[in-house]
Structures are given as structure tokens and as C-alpha cells.
């Protein structure tokens, strides 16, 4: 049977084959046979593939994937730059190069041994830095953008794709519309707020600052001004702690805020460890945060990626748990990236990440959560 015959196999037969594949790696291999198989794999991957850990394997531009649910490092390497990724959203990694150019990378189109797909890397216009920032970040361009997210797939839905970043020492916001803008729009330089997290939910972006104030804004085709950023939830009545990370995530159609408490030890603060998590649910009617002590069947994945929520029963994860990995922070951003594990918010207990911990220890680049739910 030649390659054309393989391509003409009926979809119901290919679906039946996919149902019997034992691992996610087999899914990835299935997808490279031909274009029609790739299309069937794409339809099924979003149903079968749980978040996977992407870690640098110590070889030039080679990264490994770890299947968390099956506790296995996959026999598959991706050709990706040896730099920090400041985001993973809608199937795309986001990074910044030494010229402060923001780049979108489709990681699953860059499998070692295969020809990289066209448009697997998208370079956006360079960021406009103040001279003081350019000097201070001259050797740390990886860390100029603290976090980034996108609203839609930049290839299949470019007209709706907006890239939003948190950048500079003062944690400012900027955005660019992929098929409309030729330069970045800097939207909160005069608002005197420092943004620590941003997420896209339905047709709006939500952002939180150090005081847990929640802001909402939409990016339209009209010129953007500071009045378009609306305060939708006041600050929580709690002390402002420097050693605390914050994440926003949509879970079961609800907006959650995750607090991650950190501890540093050694001199000069060489080791970082997570001591606990707290989770709050946004009450849209009363514009308030309410603490919760269970996630139900949901499992959250937090790090430098746009936070992910999945059904634990569908994806073979632990329910009511937060899977966490080391990510950027102001105190120890250039130290070893070993602060990782699983936290059950109901029992308030920790457990390990299994073989993923070995991959993390091998890496001298910050790991990041990914999901193979895009074209492979």
C-alpha cells in the first residue's frame, strides 16, 4: 500500500486506531504519517492529551516532554531555542530575544528529525525600551517580559489574535494585534499600577496587581486609552507580601486567583520552596474574591505558562490539586529551577512530580507547562 492509499483511509477507521493507542507519544507519531492523519490526530488530541512538562535537556536547542499523567519522559525531542519562555498560550510558546523581539513558537511543529513547518515561528515588532531599561536588561533580555499570553491561535485565527505582555521592572502592560498593528501599544504606564498576572477569558483580558485588585479590559479596533481599563474587584484585606506569586485561571467557567507562598533559604537566597497555596473564586455579582478549599474534579497547572485547568478524571490527573513548577520571581530568577510539586488544596498536602523532577534537575532553563492540542 503506497502513501496515497494510507492517506485515503476513512476517518472512522483512523478514529478507531487512535482509541487503541496506549500513549500520548503514539498520538504524536501517528500525526506525522500524512496530512489526513494529522487532521484526525488534531481532532482527538484535545480530548486525550493532558498538560505536559517541557524541559531543557542540556543539549544544544533540544527540549524534552514529560507526560505527567503517565509519569514518563517521552522519547521525543523538540528543536527550540535555549532561552526562557515567558508564556505558553493557545498552543504557542512565547519568548523574547536579545533584540527585545517577542517571538511566538509552535513547539509541536519543531520535532527533532523532522522538517519544521512553515510559520512555526512568528516574530513580532521589537519592543520600545527606555534607555535605562535597555541598559539594565542588556544581558537579561529573557527576563524583560515577565509573562505573556495570547487571545487566539495566530495561524488559524490571526484576526482575533492579540498578544499581551507584562514587561519591565514596573510590571507594565502592552499589547499588539497580530494582523492590525505594526507596533506595540503601552497601556498602563500612567495608571500607577503594577500588574502581576494577565489572562484572557472569553472576549476580555483580566489582570491583577500586587494588592489583588482585579482589572478588566477589552482590546477593540478603536484607539486604546487608560479609561478602557476597568477596576472590577477591590483589593483583598490582607498584608502585601513580597514572597508570594499570583496566578489567574479560568476553571469550569469561573475565574480563580491562586496565591503561591514562597520561602527562600541559603545565602544569598539560593533555594526557593513553595510552602502553601490559597485559591479564591471571583464573585462577579458582588465584585469580590471568596476563598475556596476544593477544586472539585479540576486540576490546575501553574508556572510561566498561562495557567491551565483540566478535568482530573478526563486527563488522569489528581483532583483538587495544583501542579506547580519553578517560574520567574524577583528574588531568585537566576537560581536553579527546582521548586516544583503537586499541592492538594483540600488536604493541604504536598507530593512530588515523579520523573518530571528528574527532567527539571537536568535543566538549566526554566521548565514550562504545555498542551499538545494544536497541529503537530
Automatic annotation (TrEMBL):
The family database entries (Gene3D superfamilies) matched by this protein are listed as: 1.20.1280.50
Q: Where are the transmembrane segments?
A: none
The superkingdom of the source organism is: Eukaryota
Which positions fall inside the F-box domain?
9-50
* Pfam families cross-referenced by the UniProt entry: Beta-prop_KIB1-4, F-box
Q: Which PANTHER family match?
A: F-BOX PROTEIN SKIP23-LIKE, OS07G0183000 PROTEIN-RELATED
Q: What is this protein called?
A: F-box domain-containing protein
Give the source lineage, highest ranks first.
Answer: Eukaryota, Viridiplantae, Streptophyta, Embryophyta, Tracheophyta
